[in-house]
Specification:
About 4% of the residues have low confidence. The protein has one domain. β2 and β3 form a beta hairpin. 28% of the residues are buried. It starts with a helix and ends in a 20-residue tail after the last helix. The protein contains five helices and four strands, in the order αβββαααβα. The chain is globular. It has a four-stranded antiparallel β-sheet with strand order 1-4-2-3. It is α+β, with helices and mostly antiparallel strands. This is GIY-YIG domain-containing protein.
Length: 163
């Protein structure tokens, strides 16, 4: 992993301050899960999160979950058919972007657990959805994930080709 979660959180605190949000020192915790990792358990009550998946120098996915999104947080990104816009589906379809080929619905869950780092930024839900959205947008802008959003939201990829 080529980025530092602690430094990102420091920078985000300044961004939040510019938005008029004061964050207590313990309002956001960092849960690091280096490869190979175990997917997290559901969030504790009163928490929400922004998560980041990375593979070597590539940030793959940045997403968010509110306090009632257990499946999205714990399992969906590991399984291609579980929801729209999962990391697993993106890897199967576009893994060659990061030098990975041959992934399918059977082997992609294990590959993600074995080869990706996952970092969860866990926030107090009392901060509200606006702070959650701001953190997700900040991390997406800073980290430039390879697979972000639905394909129809990514009109032009990094190579300038229509996706």
């Amino acid at each position: 992993m080529t980025w530092n979660p602690d430094l990102l959180l420091e920078d985000f605190r300044r961004v939040a301050g510019m938005a008029g949000v004061s964050l207590a020192p313990d309002a956001i915790a960092i849960d690091r899960r280096p490869a190979p990792h175990v997917p997290p358990k559901p969030l504790p009550p009163g928490k929400m999160a922004v998560y980041v998946f990375a593979f070597g120098q590539h940030v793959l996915k940045v997403g968010k979950v509110g306090p009632n999104s257990a499946a999205r947080y714990t399992a969906q990104h590991y399984n291609a058919g579980s929801a729209k816009s999962t990391l697993a589906a993106s890897l199967i379809k576009h893994g060659e972007r990061i030098g990975v080929a041959g992934l399918n619905e059977t082997n992609v869950p294990g590959w993600i657990r074995e080869h990706t780092d996952r970092v969860n930024f866990i926030l107090d839900a009392v901060l509200g959805i606006h702070v959650l959205n701001l953190l997700e947008a900040f991390l997406q802008c800073r980290l430039q994930p390879e697979f972000e959003g639905f394909s129809n939201q990514r009109m032009i990829d990094r190579e300038g080709e229509q996706e």
